């Protein structure tokens, strides 16, 4: 990529897309094409074709997707498979038709089997059944990998795929139901701490920024208390009780979004599809690359770590009626390490940084 190459970042306002844009800007790239969801619905085939024929980007980072945590994936199953297949079909196919020099497709480590040997190597793809809670999303992501591989093999394109572990950072989704665990627990404990200290102005400010089911900072105290209770934050005899979903036993690996973005830019600069040829001498497959830290933590320990960082004094309880999902999904990032990239921000520092960002948002 030259500094003035035309780069399209699909999903540039999201957790990863915003970090990719920031990373590229910091490295001197200066010719970006961006569209919000409202300006260009990537599920609309004609609109995407029109966009590519006008803009003709040289490079594409495909970081736009329908994304959510375990409950969102499990509830909106049709939307997750339909929207993700449509977005990636349209963007990958139009990138081929308009002669994009290189495209990066972002998948997810949920592509690996539910009971995958740990840590998970790239070659474990399609070796077992998937985790049920996010099967539709995972199937779409697997289709994306295979689509990139297939276009490369049939048409000689240079489309690469990366499989990131669970990510977190600025511009994440902090919805109390649809988000991932780390932003959800940060917001729950932030609100729990404010409730603990009777800081109504803090609670109202938060709800004005992100109303929950029609309740905002101007709503009555009772409606606010009811909605917080519904999402597992309640005051019982002056003590705050805070719900954590599932048993707390699942293990998860977390990567700071700006490290993720740095890995994406590094691979875009240093890795081509042709470099994958020879991984398997008989058939070319599993050409994607894991992006992770290789370190995981239980949800219980994560919850207590966030509690400590936020200095929230309430009680945590584990709601076993909520799904655990996969019990362990730790990446093996050795392929990425061999190429010369390693993450920089550890979990504790990352949580401190994102908590600070959240408070000043
Ligand atoms: N977050 C995580 O933990 C993980 C994420 N990933 C993958 O990384 C990628 C980025 O995820 P993340 O940044 O977290 O997601 P976000 O939800 O933060 O951002 C998604 C972006 O996609 C855009 N978008 C969604 N639907 C459409 C659409 N129909 N048309 C146009 N734009 C659309 C949104 O646009 P707008 O802002 O305008 O609404 C938004 O900018 C995804 O492929 C995801 O699957 C993989 C593993 C873990
Ligand atoms: C990135 C990845 O994200 C999704 O998979 P997931 O890792 O299971 O997602 P999660 O972050 O929502 O949950 C992780 C764990 O944490 C527990 N948990 C506790 N308390 C809360 C809580 O308050 N909210 C949430 N969301 N989870 C909680 C929760 O019960 C689970 O055991 C995929 O669907 C798929 O999209 C994907 O690729």
TrEMBL record:
It is an enzyme of class 1 (oxidoreductase). Pathway: Nucleotide-sugar biosynthesis; GDP-L-fucose biosynthesis via de novo pathway; GDP-L-fucose from GDP-alpha-D-mannose: step 2/2. One of its GO terms (biological process) is 'de novo' GDP-L-fucose biosynthetic process. It catalyses: GDP-beta-L-fucose + NADP(+) = GDP-4-dehydro-alpha-D-rhamnose + NADPH + H(+). One of its GO terms (molecular function) is isomerase activity. The keyword Oxidoreductase applies. Residues 7-194, 232-275 form the NAD-dependent epimerase/dehydratase domain. The active site is at residue 137. It comes from the Bacteria. NADP(+) binds at residues 11-17, 106-109, 141, 164-167, 180. Keywords: Isomerase, Multifunctional enzyme, NADP, Oxidoreductase. The record marks 108, 110 as: Important for catalytic activity. InterPro entries: Epimerase_deHydtase, GDP_fucose/colitose_synth, NAD(P)-bd_dom_sf. Its EC number is 1.1.1.271. The keyword Chloroplast does not apply. Catalyzes the two-step NADP-dependent conversion of GDP-4-dehydro-6-deoxy-D-mannose to GDP-fucose, involving an epimerase and a reductase reaction. Belongs to the NAD(P)-dependent epimerase/dehydratase family. Fucose synthase subfamily. This is GDP-L-fucose synthase. It comes from Flaviramulus basaltis.
């Amino acid at each position: 990529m030259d500094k003035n190459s035309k780069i399209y970042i699909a999903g540039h306002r999201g957790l990863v897309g915003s970090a990719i844009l920031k990373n590229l800007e910091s490295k001197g790239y200066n010719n970006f094409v961006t569209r919000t969801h409202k300006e260009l619905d990537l599920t609309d085939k004609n609109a995407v074709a029109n966009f590519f024929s006008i803009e003709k980007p040289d490079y594409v980072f495909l970081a736009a997707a329908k994304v959510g945590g375990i409950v969102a994936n499990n509830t909106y199953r049709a939307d997750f498979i339909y929207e993700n297949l449509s977005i990636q079909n349209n963007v990958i196919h139009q990138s081929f038709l308009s002669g994009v020099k290189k495209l990066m497709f972002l998948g997810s480590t949920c592509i690996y089997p539910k009971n995958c040997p740990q840590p998970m190597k790239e070659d474990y793809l399609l070796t077992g059944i998937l985790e049920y809670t996010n099967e539709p999303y995972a199937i779409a992501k697997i289709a994306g990998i295979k689509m990139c591989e297939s276009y490369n093999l049939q048409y000689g394109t240079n489309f690469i795929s990366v499989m990131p572990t669970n990510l977190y950072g600025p511009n994440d989704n902090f919805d109390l139901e649809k988000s991932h665990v780390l932003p959800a627990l940060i917001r729950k404990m932030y609100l729990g701490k404010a409730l603990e200290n009777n800081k109504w102005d803090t609670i109202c400010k938060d709800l004005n920024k992100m109303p929950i089911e029609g309740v905002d900072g101007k709503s009555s105290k009772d409606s606010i208390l009811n909605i917080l209770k519904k999402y597992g934050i309640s005051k019982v005899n002056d003590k705050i009780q805070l719900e954590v979903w599932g048993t707390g036993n699942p293990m998860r690996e977390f990567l700071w979004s700006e490290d993720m973005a740095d890995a994406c830019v590094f691979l875009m600069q240093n890795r081509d599809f042709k470099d994958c040829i020879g991984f398997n001498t008989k058939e070319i497959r599993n050409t994607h690359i894991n992006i992770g830290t290789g370190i995981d933590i239980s949800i219980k320990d994560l919850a207590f770590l966030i509690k400590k960082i936020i200095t929230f004094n309430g009680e945590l309880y584990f709601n076993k009626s909520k799904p655990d999902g996969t019990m362990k999904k730790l990446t093996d990032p050795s392929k990425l390490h061999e190429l010369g990239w390693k993450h920089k921000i550890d979990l504790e520092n990352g949580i401190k940084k994102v908590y600070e960002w959240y408070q000043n948002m």
